[in-house]
């Protein structure tokens, strides 16, 4: 496995003005990463297309591949036809970036009227229809689409597996985020066993975890079941990262694994320490 840095991991430095998106690839190379994934920010489509071309040029110049492009999506709170058309445009941006993988989300668990969807099963066909139509378009452009266990509603392994099986398209797969399962109060190792056969990309992420009822200080958030969580340096939290990496490897996954850091420490420190830990886990797997 090779290790990429997610541009999301540099959010802290971009917020405080130390970096811009165009600093991500050079800094990731300096830190020792093998590639970068780009997470869409709040740029306009015109701005993102121009940025994608510049990042592609930079990627070639630095010999730092852009391994994936990550964007948001919601097939339940938004009109499916409109969302499919919007995501086709994002696929075209992935092509401009020079990457062959694009992650899009599936649902935030709300309907078009802003009301919570009571049952995942009620939304499944609608979600799968949107995902299938996007990946059919993407296949023609050489881009493999994927969705992540992400966003609370479609975060449990059995729910994401249901989406994978219902879409049933060879161009559509799973971005397995080993840490995100904790947001749905699921054991990461057990969940990775479910996701590993579908993996086309992976995220290494770690969290500190408290029990339900304990205080959630500033910078912490709560899982779906109420457990306080806080981002951690990969290898320093309570996610069994080494075990999860081995489970992915044993299932035959040998692609990039992107390091996501969202802790309270300085992001450069978090990335540097996390990379050292993750490389050790990969070597031992």
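-> sequence recovered:
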């Amino acid at each position: 496995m090779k290790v990429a840095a997610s541009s999301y991991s540099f959010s802290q430095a971009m917020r405080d003005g130390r970096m811009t998106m165009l600093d991500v690839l050079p800094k990731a190379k300096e830190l020792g990463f093998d590639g970068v994934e780009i997470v869409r920010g709040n740029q306009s489509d015109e701005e993102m297309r121009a940025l994608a071309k510049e990042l592609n040029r930079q990627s070639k110049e630095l010999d730092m591949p852009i391994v994936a492009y990550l964007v948001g999506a919601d097939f339940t709170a938004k009109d499916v036809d409109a969302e499919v058309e919007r995501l086709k445009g994002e696929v075209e941006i992935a092509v401009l970036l020079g990457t062959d993988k694009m992650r899009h989300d599936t649902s935030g668990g709300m309907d078009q009227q802003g009301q919570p969807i009571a049952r995942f099963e009620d939304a499944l066909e609608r979600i799968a229809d949107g995902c299938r139509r996007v990946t059919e378009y993407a296949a023609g452009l050489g881009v493999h689409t994927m969705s992540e266990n992400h966003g609370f509603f479609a975060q449990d392994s059995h729910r994401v597996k249901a989406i994978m099986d219902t879409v049933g398209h060879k161009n559509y797969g799973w971005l397995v985020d080993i840490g995100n399962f904790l947001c749905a109060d699921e054991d990461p190792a057990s969940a990775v066993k479910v996701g590993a056969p579908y993996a086309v990309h992976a995220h290494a992420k770690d969290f500190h975890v408290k029990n339900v009822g304990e205080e959630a200080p500033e910078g912490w958030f709560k899982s779906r079941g109420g457990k306080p969580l806080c981002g951690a340096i990969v290898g320093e939290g309570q996610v069994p990262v080494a075990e999860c990496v081995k489970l992915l490897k044993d299932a035959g996954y040998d692609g990039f694994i992107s390091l996501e850091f969202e802790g309270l420490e300085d992001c450069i420190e978090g990335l540097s320490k996390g990379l050292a830990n993750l490389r050790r886990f990969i070597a031992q797997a």
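The radius of gyration is 18 Å.
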